[in-house]
Amino acid sequence: MDIIDKALEFEQRKRRSLSTSDRVKIGREAKALILDLNQIYKVKKDEKIMDIMKRLTAIKRKVEKRLKGPILT
User: Fold this and answer.
1) Distance between CA 47 and CA 34 in Å, rounded?
2) Are 52 and 4 in contact (CB under 8 A)?
3) Closest Cα to residue 29, out of 15, 42, 43?
4) The organism sits in which domain of life (predicted)?
5) What tens digit of pLDDT does each residue of 12-57 get?
6) How big, in percent rounded to 5, are the helix, strand and coil portions of the chain?
7) Angle at 59 between CA 53 and CA 62, to 5 degrees
8) Are 52 and 35 spatial neighbours (Cβ–Cβ below 8 Å)?
9) Is the pTM for the entire model greater than 0.70?
10) DSSP helix/strand/coil, 28
11) Which of helix, strand or coil describes residue 15?
12) Under 8 Å between Cβ of 37 and 4
């Protein structure tokens, strides 16, 4: 359950005034954690793992949205 502990710790980190490289690192780390959790979920089918993955995905999307910048029309 080391991956679940890493994911929960990742969720609790502060994300204020990050540089672009920090945002890229956070996005990559979130993706890696989500993929690792997905491998566990395929075997165990535990809803708690799915909830963690959903929360990490929300964090990842938020960070990536900030990286891409505003949509210009």
Assistant:
1) 14
2) yes
3) 15
4) Bacteria
5) 888 778 888 888 998 999 999 999 999 999 998 889 999 999 999 9
6) 80, 0, 20
7) 140
8) no
9) yes
10) helix
11) coil
12) yes
